[in-house]
Design brief:
The structure holds two protein chains of two kinds. Chain A is α+β, with helices and mostly antiparallel strands. Helix content of chain A is 32%, strand content 24%. Chain A has helices at 16-33, 41-46, 57-72, 88-105, 189-202, 205-211, and strands at residues 4-9, 111-115, 118-122, 131-137, 140-150, 153-159, 179-186, 217-222, 226-230. In chain A, helix 1 packs antiparallel against helix 4, helix 3 packs parallel to helix 5 (189-202) and helix 5 (189-202) runs antiparallel to helix 6. The chains are: A alpha+beta, B alpha+beta.
Chain lengths: 245, 166
């Protein structure tokens, strides 16, 4: 996947076995879904060495979610575009969500999981303190454009500035040039991840699209250096300069 | 020290962070951002350690339990890893280590385009709010945004750990 995964658990005394299981899960996801591995299930499916009916439950679940987002986005989210089968735009968030379920089942309540720039928070960062999730400034890697204060929430961002990430608009066949980045927040990281990818492709229109999806909010950073966001983001945005710099 | 106890101690301090990356070809691997119990840096079993949780704004007390130092050969201090380059840019990471645990992780350098001066253009978007893009240095726990190329980040972190091991 080429993805850095971060697990930050604030619960005291979570059994190590729970962490080990989450790590093993991410390895399993990599083996199944990595488009960099010729022997992964998704690569073999992409070459038609397998048909969908022969695939694992997890692969079929991911494909089903991708198909749903493709429909909802009228093709802006298209995992087969470019001739390769690549559901990575949803797999990161989906795998993190599954890992979160595993940690919760093991008793964890306060943690975040980051997967390739997508973040999922649960509970509290510390007693009486919400998680603070920064949205990276597109042109200054060590600074933030905005900060969201979250409890249990998913936050995914698609951006043009991560130049290792190749997103093409299936409709124009070019890299999208509408916005510098698109952040989507909502209950599910699987959907937030895919919605952010699709909305990024759509550009500023993507904001209206996400605004029409119940429970999800979006924030875009535009090429002319504005932040534009849907009403649902208002409750999440922290005031500027809160806390020590 | 049994790993289970180390997890418990780390968790009562500032939490637990594991960073690992799935690399692009040839194979996926775990690069544990934590001193492995053995001296090998390529141990397949990551050892959990504490994370860099930023101090709260003053409302919450710091943890009362002082974590027992982990005897893993990591010196305390601030260690900046090498600038790890890839075809798209480079990443350099600084680790702060105290009593054998990582207590802070900061990207100190990333080669990106120079910031441009902000311009404002108006646009009518009735259901949307808009303001000029800010650039703030904020107290945060996590970052959303395709932040780093994964391999460079892991390389820089690993080199900072190697320096801490001296």
């Amino acid at each position: 996947m080429g993805t850095v995964v971060t697990l930050d658990v604030r619960d005291p005394g979570l059994p190590k076995a729970a962490i080990d299981a989450a790590i093993a899960w991410f390895h399993e996801v990599d083996a199944r879904f990595s488009t960099f591995r010729d022997d992964s299930e998704i690569s073999r499916l992409g070459r038609a060495e397998l048909d969908v009916g022969e695939c694992s439950t997890d692969v079929r679940e991911v494909l089903g979610l991708c198909a749903e987002v493709e429909r909802r986005s009228q093709g802006s989210f298209d995992i087969r575009y470019g001739g390769r089968l690549d559901p990575s735009g949803l797999v990161k968030g989906w795998s993190a969500e599954r890992a979160a379920e595993m940690l919760v089942a093991a008793g964890a309540r306060d943690f975040f999981i980051g997967a390739g720039g997508d973040v999922l928070t649960r509970g509290r960062a510390a007693p009486g303190r919400c998680w603070r999730v920064g949205i990276r400034h597109p042109e200054d890697a060590v600074r933030m454009a905005a900060v969201l204060e979250t409890g249990s929430l998913a936050v995914a961002t698609s951006g043009a500035y991560e130049r290792g990430q190749h997103i093409l608009d299936p409709r124009t066949r070019r890299a999208p040039d509408g916005v510098l980045s698109m952040t989507v927040a909502g209950p599910s990281l699987s959907y937030a991840d895919a919605f952010a990818t699709a909305a990024f492709v759509m550009g500023e229109e993507g904001l209206d699209w996400v605004a029409g999806i119940d429970g999800y909010a979006a924030l875009a950073i535009t090429r002319d250096h504005r932040m534009v966001w849907t009403a649902g983001m208002d409750a999440l945005l922290a005031g500027p300069g809160r806390g020590p710099a | 020290m049994p790993i289970r106890a180390a997890v418990a101690l780390a968790a009562t301090a500032v939490g637990l962070i594991l960073l690992f990356s799935f690399r692009t070809p040839p194979a996926s691997s775990i690069t544990a951002v934590a001193p492995p119990a053995a001296s090998s840096t390529s141990s397949p079993t990551p050892t959990p350690t504490s994370s860099g949780a930023p101090p709260s704004g003053g409302a919450s007390p710091t943890p009362t339990a002082t974590p027992t130092p982990v005897a893993n050969g990591l010196k305390s201090g601030s260690f900046t890893g090498q600038d790890a380059a890839n075809q798209y840019g480079s990443v350099q990471v600084q680790l702060v280590i105290s009593a054998g645990r990582i207590t802070g992780v900061t990207v100190v350098q990333s080669s990106e385009n120079d910031p441009q001066s902000a311009t404002i253009s108006s646009r009518a978007f009735p259901v949307l709010r808009s303001e000029v893009l800010q650039s703030q240095s904020a107290q945060i726990d996590a970052v959303s945004g395709a932040t780093y190329t994964s391999q460079s980040y892991a390389e820089s972190v690993q080199s900072a750990l190697d320096m801490a091991r001296g």
